[in-house]
Amino acid sequence: MSHTTDTTSPRPLPLLMVPLRRCGSHALRLRLNVSPAFHSPYPLHIVDFMPLVPLYGDLADDGAYRQLVKDVVGLQAAIMVKWPGVHFDADEIFEALRHTPRSVHRIVWELLLRSGEQHGASVVMDKSLDSIHYAPELMALYPQMRFLNVVRDPRAQVASMNRAIIHDFDTTLNAQAWVRAHSAGRALAASHPDRVLTIRYEDFLSDQESILRRVCQFIGLEFLPAMLDIGASQEARELSSMSALWESNCFAPIAANKDKFKSQLTLHEIETIETLAREHMQHYGYEPMTPAHAPLPDAAVLEQCRAQSARLRHLAWEQLRLNAPGDYAARRVRAEYLERVHQRLLAHSPDQTSLEPAA
Question: Span 197-218, mean pLDDT?
């Protein structure tokens, strides 16, 4: 996509949703996307690309950075939900960025901001929630960046994560990921309170309008009543048909579902989550169901968890191939693209190990 910077107009406000997927993030994104001033295409989830970045070597080298730009543009082309109406010229983007601070995040956000500018947006949001772990670098690159910190009951979120091919297939591992993500989110909110808005997904379930108005006020966006009519969103209907993970996104959220975890997790799993996330649960107002004194997992237990999760992940890919071939094929395009890039880079770094396929 050709691009000419208008120096008289500010670029859209960058907004990053954090800190962990399966928090109801699509529900929020789709409703905000109703506004023509808001632009949030399907996320790149650059976290899956990050293990490759060291293999490019010194990004001060024009050849290395040009290749990184090309590969990030290629990743954008390989995602399962295409960005509407945009095409990027990697060489042109490299030339535009070559004299700015060099970073994979700089490339990602250049794509997002250009897409937003083409759509006339004043706010551009990336729903790559895992990028919470790169918040300091992002704030240095974009001093005006804001963060939408979405909190969900860890028991409900882990129960959802356990069934999603994008996460581990183990309660303990996913509970640990929840704690790491929300530790980072809380630290960011504490150190930069003016740049972070924290909302609870359960509060959104009980009063969508109130939460959406808060978000809009935080980013200088006009609230539109149409945001509440998700059934009228073509994007929501299309997304819900693409994957079992997203099939509920064209309907109003069901408040009673916030307690579904009680039938999806064993009492032992619930206590494990409550033990690991106890302090965060107290901070965010989630009442425990157990004494929250489960034994903390040691190295041997974690190794067993990882081995079991790997077996279940392999099975999940096979089940997805058999039961949802369209979803499988779309996810494999991205996973295989990442593996091809990795294998090409390995030719120069043969000591590196192979990546697991990313969903």
Answer: 96
